Amino acid sequence: MQSLYFDMQKITLFLKRRQHNSIFIVAISLGILLGVVLALLPSTHIFSGVSWSLLTTILLIICFWKRYTWLIFFAFICGALIGLTRSVPTQQQLSAYSVLAGKSVSIQGKIADDVSIGKHGEKQVKLTNIKINNKNIPGTIWLSTGSSMNLKRSFEMTATGKISKGFGSFSAAIYRANIVSVVDTHTDKAREVRDSFSENVRTIFVTGLSPSMTRAGLVSGLSLAAWYYGRSVHPLVLLPFVAAITVIINPSFMWGDLGWYLSFAAFAGVMILAPLLQNYLFGPKKPGALRQIIGETISAQLATMPIIAFSFGTMAVFALPANLLVLPFVPFAMALVFMTGLAATFLPAIAVLFGYPSQILLGYMTSVVQLFVNLPNASVEVSIGVIGLIISYAVLVGLAIFLQLKTKHDFRNDNLVE
Known about the structure:
Elements: H1 2-15, H2 21-38, H3 50-66, H4 71-94, H5 96-100, E1 104-111, E2 116-117, E3 123-132, E4 135-136, E5 141-145, E6 156-165, E7 172-174, E8 178-183, H6 189-204, H7 211-228, H8 235-249, H9 258-282, H10 289-312, E9 314-316, H11 319-326, H12 330-346, H13 352-373, E10 379-381, H14 386-407
Parallel strand pairs: 5-7
Antiparallel strand pairs: 1-3, 1-6, 2-3, 3-4, 3-5, 6-7, 6-8, 9-10
Helix pairs in contact: 2-4, 2-8, 3-4, 6-12, 7-12, 8-9, 9-10, 9-14, 10-11, 10-14, 11-13, 12-13
């Protein structure tokens, strides 16, 4: 009895122990992700009222005020309520598209992102601020068109076409739409600056440069600045927190956006699995650039492989050597493009000094990819079901736990920017 008494006392002391704020952030984030998934179930409309938001706010204040261990469970419940109250209305609103499926409509909207080009030369557009048949409807629509009209981000456009089922984070899709009109609102100053930057780079490159590549160059410059102010953040806190923020912004990411899942799987591989493997195989000493690239590439591929096999039923046989030949040069290519744009803007006379090396490096990267794509048996069929997907990630999680127990790796010493 005395032993039982001491055990109960230890449990009580543990439950009353104050925990770090990061523990509650993780609990809330995981709860949000669960809540967004639960929003797909029937009869979840009861969680769309204001009273649930009020209850959640009160519970969160108590959780962060006291920070007792037993309150972690309530933080998780709060997260689930946040996810539900945010995503249930969105799920209900998106049901409007099911009524319109298969019907020809007139649609108005705002181009939300850079226009991409499909494999057949068609323009692919992401539309928001949707108005169908003069009625406002929430959500995002994917639209393709063969129109020669000039389409850019933030332009407002009117089109006609047949509503089809959406995919990923898109509520619906319209294929081969007819563009009726396009209006430049002149409200996206960032795009105008970016496009001007891109045009300056394009004058130096022979083959031209897409806005997306220019944006990547700008990101490289900003990343270097962020690295200077780098702070220590544990990946097990950062990953769920960022994931929760993204689904709060757009719950449909978690309802079928393959890119969302692949990106977070790759991040998990690089931020968690890679340093554990490096520590286990080579010790705690910081790896060199080549060893780090190899380790991160392998880890990212291991983390994304189950999703790719589940979604596409194929695997790229030569993905690893292709990545190893290309990835080391990506930072240099981004930096050169960034410097080319700056030089073309402020010192045009010397811009060619950066332009030609950039073009050569980008040409090498695309040639390597094309070489491996054209090799015989470049891909193999590997199909797994839901059970196989779950087992695959259970094995990866088990591997990570094993490596952590063996190495006692301290993630707080890792620089995530580097």
